[in-house]
Amino acid sequence: MSTLKQVIFSGLIFVLIACSSQRKKSDESIELFSLDKVKLLDSPFREAQLTDLNYILELDADKLLAPFLMDAGLEPVKPGYGNWEGTGLNGHIGGHYLSALAMMYSATGNDSIKKRLDYTIDWLEKCQQANGNGYVGGVPNGKIIWDEISKGEIKAELFSLNGRWVPLYNIHKIFAGLRDAWVFTNNEKALTIWKNLSDWWIDLTENLSDEQFQAMLKSEHGGMNEVFADLFSIKGDSTYLAMAKKMSHRLILNPLINQHDSLTGLHANTQIPKVVGFLKVGLLSGDSSWTKASEFFWKTVVQNRSMAFGGNSVHEHFNPVDDFSSMLESEQGPETCNTYNMLRLTKGLWEISGFSSYLDFYERALYNHILSSQHPRGGFVYFTPLRPMHYRVYSQPHQGMWCCVGSGMENHAKYGELIYAHRGDGVLINLFIASELDWSENGIHIKQTTRFPFEEESTLLLKLNKPKKFSVSIRIPEWIVGDKLLIKINDQESMEIPSENGYAVINRTWQNGDQVVVQLPMKITSEQLPDKSHWVSFLYGPMVMAAKTDTTELTGLFADDSRMGHVAKGTKYPLENLPTLVGSIDSLMAKLIVEKGDESIVVPLNNTGFPESFQSLKLVPFYQIHEARYIMYWPYSDSSQRH
Ligand SMILES: [Zn+2]
Predict the structure, then answer these.
(1) How far is the CA of 105 from the centre of ligand 1 (A)?
(2) Ligand 1 centre and the CA of 381: distance in Å?
(3) For residue 444, how far is its CA from the centre of ligand 1 (angstroms)?
(4) pLDDT single digits (tens) 524-539
């Protein structure tokens, strides 16, 4: 049971809400707001969204469409891009581009984005018509491979299918792009193209046995099961759900059903989208073993395989849970696509459970991995090395055509997806990001004003057509000091506020102009590596704090169009030269003093117990560190002996 008590604080009445461990499932299901209902206000997230918008507009739609036109026998308007777009994965960025355009248009209403979206879909329709069989895709000479597949000629490896570079992964992007154009902008033409494309795949594979499907699924295939499950949820035709099941990779699913983590050594981003599909298939078919399998996957990845900033994997593969040494040595730390997909899974699991613990991970990964993965002037990060004093490189619009550019364009368009949600008439406040919710069909408008994390509170202003009784549920973050939320309603007013599923639930008749102030006190905490080896990171609230060390030899900082341009190839500093923090972490943390400015949070390391060579450094939110080498994890020894 939750405990409640009122206290007088700074002359104002606040209500203390203890975080309840009790989990109660409401009868009404959670519904998300579409992106067009949520506008971002000034914040690092708004800046990132605008930076992304410019990057998207900088890309040339004709060049991204070229692979689709070529494979349909049409003359491309312009030659296609190079890099991954010109060496076999042609068309994958075009699919992501469509998703990003749809999300960005929904989120911002930008006219130029809308024109690009319509233009892209019009061309895809022409390509589909020219192909004549429902197919539309950018795989070079696609007709040959699809013909082989239809005859059951399947030679699958992880990164190839019949000698091509992951063609199923590639076409998944256009399936998903068409879906997103429908979901985010109700574009009927996109829905028709998507359905035709899906019917093409069903016809193509009609003679394949389940064994042949499973053999084919050895090759990376994105979320092909998910897009068929999605189409089933829209069209209600069970053929699509049957295909979603056929496209579900049993080699990965079966151990997860048995709650067994056999992920070590597997390519991480190949698996995460499959699991998003398992969740949807499980929900739509009523098979709880599939949904439980996806919950188990989430749990083991988040608890045992994720770094403090939310990312996972080394060299794109899951490392052993009891040995993160490769993570600290490699220049190829967690890949941004992994976290993009983990957040999609997290969102889905939160939606069905309402448990705020999912949002704790979502928030952590959003601030520290996603937000950090875009250069302030544009450009996306692929790998985030955890190797101390290494650095990250950024894509350039016309040169980098990597997977993380594709998912990156989407990441920064959709920050509004989970800030709010509703359960029946009740509004859920999930994230403390300056924004406006326009729930006009229910007569509710909420403006959230905050400079969080630079200030430790957020204000909700309710604008209503008329007085209305409904609940406002505010997430109690796991990092809150004392596990309590301090809430002030209209300055003086107070009420007893129960908590449920990790939310403070304010149920009352609201008046136009009512104001709720949520206090969000933060403190410094620490987190060890998941393998419990002697490496520690520091956090302030949900933010991972890291130190910028230097800017020496940032080779390839803005990546060229070479195949491996996304890897930070500059000199690696020897780890053995890194000084060790000595003493208990608690006593070290006690000496860390937080200094706050309007847009800064700084923890100077001078006059702390940090080694001499670190004393000139400062901890800052990791997402603010760009164009530099950095330290996120520090070696420590809690004995007086140095390593
Ligand atoms: Zn990627």
Answers:
(1) 23
(2) 9
(3) 38
(4) 999 999 999 999 999 9
In which residue ranges of the chain is pLDDT below 50?
A: 1-25, 640-643
Taking the centre of ligand 1 as the mean of its atom positions, its distance from the CA of residue 469, in whole angstroms, is 45
pLDDT at 205: 98
Q: Do 425 and 413 contact (CB within 8 A), yes or no? A: no
Q: Is the peptide bond before 574 cis (omega within 30 degrees of 0)?
A: no
For tokens 């704090």, the residue is: 545
- Ligand 1 center–CA 565 separation, angstroms: 13
pTM given for the model: 0.95
CA 44/CA 52 separation, integer angstroms: 12
Q: How far is the CA of 384 from the centre of ligand 1 (A)?
A: 11
Cα of 89 to ligand 1 centre, how many Å?
13
Cα(272) to ligand 1 centroid in Å equals 12
Q: Which residues pair with 439 in a beta bridge?
A: 444
Distance 336 CA to ligand 1 centre (A): 6
Residue in the block written with tokens 């950090």: 372
Map 471-501 to HEC letters. EEEEECCCCCHHHEEEEEECCCECCCCCEEC
- The pLDDT score that the predictor gives to residue 560 is 96
Closest by CA position to 211, among listed 284, 135, 156:
156
Burial label for 270, CB within 10 Å (0-12, 13-18, 19+), is buried
**pLDDT (0 to 100) of residue 389:** 98
Expressed in angstroms and rounded, the spacing between residue 174 Cα and the centre of ligand 1 is: 16
For ligand 1, the distance from its centroid to the CA atom of residue 390, given in whole angstroms, is 19
Q: Report DSSP state, residue 368.
A: I
CA of 102 to the centre of ligand 1 (A): 20
370 alpha carbon – ligand 1 mean position (Å): 12
Give 83 Cα–ligand 1 centroid separation in angstroms. 14
Cα–Cα nearest to 272, from 212, 230, 218, 221: 221
For the chain, which residues make up each domain, given as ranges? 4-27+420-450+457-519, 249-348, 524-637
Ligand 1 centre and the CA of 402: distance in Å?
6
Judge residue 343's burial from the number of C-beta atoms within 10 Å of its C-beta, 0-12 exposed, 13-18 middle, 19 or more buried. buried
pLDDT given at position 495: 62
The pLDDT of residue 497: 82
Architecture of domain 4-27+420-450+457-519: Sandwich (2.60)
Contacting residues for 441 by C-beta, under 8 A, at least 6 apart: none
What is residue 337's predicted lDDT score, i.e. its pLDDT? Answer: 98
- pLDDT for position 491: 87
Both tokens of 149, joined, read: 């597949």
